[in-house]
Design a protein that fits this description.
171 residues, mainly beta, 53% strand, elongated
């Protein structure tokens, strides 16, 4: 799996819609006002034929890393929604999926490489290095949108498959 990928590939398999109504909700809170809310609901629209699943999450944090001025430099927020529709009529099946994710936060610590009194670079891996000194706060804004449609038609000896996908990434 992952032929042509330099370091292999990761196959993420999401949970499919179900013929029974089900769902979950969860929340967590931690250090630096870090929180996460997540939930999903799934079930039939037409029993044994058309199923849906909607899931989402929102997370936020003030950040854990401070520069020498005491400013938190890695805070941020992220929200994601995902939807699926599955149709199964026997020989014909279709799976329509879509997702939207938007996030913003601290990014890319910008700093001057530390030097000693003679101007020689200090070992950047030295854990006694004083840490981020810059007052330039890096920011990142991202938006990911995608959709895909897979259709299969089983003729008996052969299954015909069509897969169409679209993605839009802005960062």
């Amino acid at each position: 799996y992952g032929q042509g990928a330099i370091a292999g590939a990761i196959n993420i398999v999401t949970k499919n819609p179900t013929n029974d109504f089900e769902g979950f909700a969860k929340a967590s809170y931690g250090v630096a006002n870090s929180y996460r809310l997540a939930g999903a609901v799934s079930g039939p629209i037409i029993a044994d034929t058309l199923f849906f699943r909607v899931s989402g999450f929102h997370r936020g944090t003030d950040g854990l890393i401070k520069n020498q001025r005491g400013q938190r430099i890695d805070g941020g927020n992220s929200t994601s929604l995902r939807g699926q529709l599955n149709l199964d009529t026997g020989p014909f099946t279709a799976k329509l999926r879509g997702s939207w994710t938007k996030g913003d936060g601290g990014c890319c610590i910008q700093d001057i490489a530390p030097r000693n009194a003679t101007g020689t670079l200090i070992d950047l891996d030295d854990v006694t290095n004083p840490g981020a000194n810059s007052d330039i706060l890096g920011r990142e804004n991202t938006r990911f949108r995608d959709a895909s449609l897979r259709m299969d038609y089983d003729t008996g000896p052969v299954t015909l498959t069509s897969i169409t996908g679209w993605a839009d990434v802005r960062q």
